[in-house]
Every structure is written in C-alpha cells, then in structure tokens.
Amino acid sequence: MLSQSNNFRKENVFSIASEKELIAAFRSKDQKKLILPEKLRFPLNIQSYFTWKEPSGVYTYLVFKVPSWDLPRGVVFKRTPPSREPTGGLCSWCHAYGTSEEIGLLSVVMSSHVSYSYMICQDLRCIEKIEETCMLSGKDPEKYIADLYYRMEKLFENISNYRPE
Questions:
Q1: What is the C-alpha to C-alpha distance for residues 141 and 130, in angstroms, rounded to an integer?
Q2: How far apart are CA 91 and CA 97, in angstroms?
Q3: Backbone dihedral region for residue 2 (phi beyond 0: left; psi -120 to 50: alpha; all else: beta)
Q4: pTM as predicted
Q5: Which of 6, 75, 103, 153 would bridge 98 by S-S if both were Cys, CB 3.0 to 4.6 A apart?
Q6: How buried is residue 164: exposed, middle or buried, by Cβ count under 10 Å (0-12/13-18/19+)?
Q7: How far apart (Å, rounded) are the C-alpha atoms in residues 65 and 61?
Q8: 133-136 long-range contacts, CB within 8 A, separation 24+
Q9: Which tens digits make up the pLDDT trace of 113-137?
C-alpha cells in the first residue's frame, strides 16, 4: 500500500494459497533446491516478505511481492561460508552492522558461470533490524523500509533481466 502523504509503502501484505503456488514463485532451476519448512500451513498470509533456511544452512529462501506484480517471486540464496576469523560487515540492504556470522555473502546462481552476490544479513531479518534501530533512535522506519523494499525489488529485476551471452 502507498501512503497518501509521502508515497512510501507502509505495509507490504500478500497471500500464498498453496504449496504449489509457493513453489511456482521460484524459477524452475531454483525449485530443485527447495526444502520447504516443516509444518507449513496454507494459506500463508505474509507481511513484508517470507524467508526461511533449509536445515543445513547452505540455502536461504526469500519470497517477496510488490503491489505491481501479479504474483509473488522467490529466490534461493546460497550462503558463502565465512572466512577463518570473524570480521565485521555491513548489510547492503538494511545497513545493520554485524559479525561475519550475521552479515555475509549470499549468492544467486544465474547460470553455470554467473552468480550475483549480495553482502546482506544471513537470516534476512532486515525489516526487523530496521524497526528495532528506528525504535531505539526515535526515527520513523517508513523511509528505511521503503528503501529495503526497493533494494529487494531491484534484486528480482536483476534476476528477471539476466540474459546469458
């Protein structure tokens, strides 16, 4: 929804009716990597976005939808293991700071030779971190959440627009 006063999205709410619809949100190459969470109940009523990790922690899944899209879209991120020594990092989506266990390189496979990598929160809890930070600082989170949605939307545009040479 768009706010009347400033054009920022106040809330991004959508629903997924069935397991089949959830799987269809992902590219066919990503559907092979899907491990759905146990005890998932449908319909899923999602506020902002839906994310989970598979048990080994190698893959993290993100399902997102903006109002202009007909259907939600999903992406499978592959986690790059952290280096030997823990280091600090900054999430490029929410600008949270954390250790290499919290902020790390998540990659999206585009082809056998190309991957897009993002330095982001490993658990994709960006919206919660924005809300927590804004609450502590007394700021309105709306602009920061709109920026997060914009960055997520760009991720899906990059995936959709990718054409192998």
A1: 7
A2: 7
A3: beta
A4: 0.90
A5: 103
A6: exposed
A7: 14
A8: 133/96
A9: 999 999 999 999 999 999 999 999 9
